[in-house]
Design brief:
alpha/beta; 8-stranded mixed β-sheet; two-stranded antiparallel ribbon; 2-enoyl-CoA Hydratase, Chain A, domain 1
Length: 308
């Protein structure tokens, strides 16, 4: 009786061991296959002539390029990244239309201008491919600067749209320096090289100069909006004051053409419901290197113009 129990236990143990080995092999094969697909994806992405649309069938699709976050030279919404995605989208022979999906408060006027200019260039080179901007939560300031280059702009009724203005941020620490008994030593070559220094009293001439510069960039922004929207928006000083509006109100003001999502535009407007994302994505190593570089080059105080 004892021998039989021992034999049964040994058999059960052996069977369970075999099952565990099979499970381990299945998971091992699964992860090997997953790793293989990952390597293939990296290989395809690094090929100079690879286009995402080549992985799909012969039908036309809608190309998508996302503008997410602050538009800046060192962000995921930099002109280099967005322009690279736009060029790939337009160049793909299966692209029926391009959607620029925006969720951004704006950012650098220079970076926004680069993207705006490139959209116009691509529209002229590929006149048969329409371009639509779709605003999600927010498409303000520099992000709206980008959107106005599209053929049409779509938004949700609750989207935040507008902020057609320019700003420059800074701080003043003059009184704090005096209370702490700290002496500021600033040496410059050039009478106005240290203008708007946060540790010295502000000068009226400096403020007037910057206000003139802001007004100049603001006028460039206004002219860009007029060029893109033409007769579709209501011309009024309030529109260019820096205010934002809901998507529903923006439709009334002519800041957007209609309400709708990216899938709606792809399906109902472009007529190609299949959406292929052409937005270049940073790898983990790219993100790590960028963060290290940013931390090494970060400055304590800086002033920059912003379409935010």
């Amino acid at each position: 009786m004892t021998d039989n129990n021992s034999d049964n236990f040994a058999s059960a143990f052996a069977i369970e061991a075999l099952r565990e080995q099979r499970r381990a092999r299945r998971w091992n094969n699964f992860f090997k296959g997953l790793f293989f697909l990952y390597l293939v994806g990296i290989l395809l992405a690094t090929l100079p002539n690879f286009k995402p649309g080549e992985l799909f069938g012969g039908d036309k699709f809608t190309a998508l390029v996302e503008v997410q976050g602050v538009i800046a030279s060192d962000s995921d919404a930099s002109a280099d990244i967005i322009v690279t995605g736009l060029r790939a989208a337009f160049e793909d022979p299966k692209t029926a239309g391009v959607i620029i999906r925006i969720n951004s408060p704006g950012g650098s006027p220079v970076q926004s201008g680069y993207i705006n200019d490139e959209i116009y260039r691509l529209k002229a080179e590929y006149p048969e491919i329409p371009v639509y901007a779709v605003i999600q939560d927010i498409g303000a300031s520099g992000a709206y600067y980008v959107a106005v280059a599209a053929n049409e702009i779509y938004a949700d009724k609750a989207s935040i749209v507008g902020s057609i203005g320019v700003r420059m941020d800074g701080f003043g620490f003059v009184e704090s320096m005096q209370k702490l008994g700290i002496e500021r030593r600033l040496l410059t070559a050039g009478e106005n090289k240290g203008f708007l220094d946060p540790f010295t009293p502000v000068k009226e001439n400096d403020v007037a100069h910057v206000r003139g510069l802001l007004a100049e960039i603001h006028e460039q922004f206004i002219n860009t909006v007029r060029k893109g929207r033409q007769e579709r928006f209501s011309e009024s000083p309030e529109l260019f004051s820096g205010y934002v509006w809901s998507g529903e109100r923006s439709l009334e003001l002519g800041l957007v053409d209609a309400l709708g999502s990216a899938s709606f535009v792809a399906r109902e407007i472009i007529g190609a419901k299949e959406i292929v994302d052409f937005t270049p994505r940073r790898t983990v190593l790219d993100q790590f290197a960028r963060r290290i570089g940013a931390s090494l080059s970060e400055k304590l105080f800086s002033s920059e113009f912003s379409l935010r």
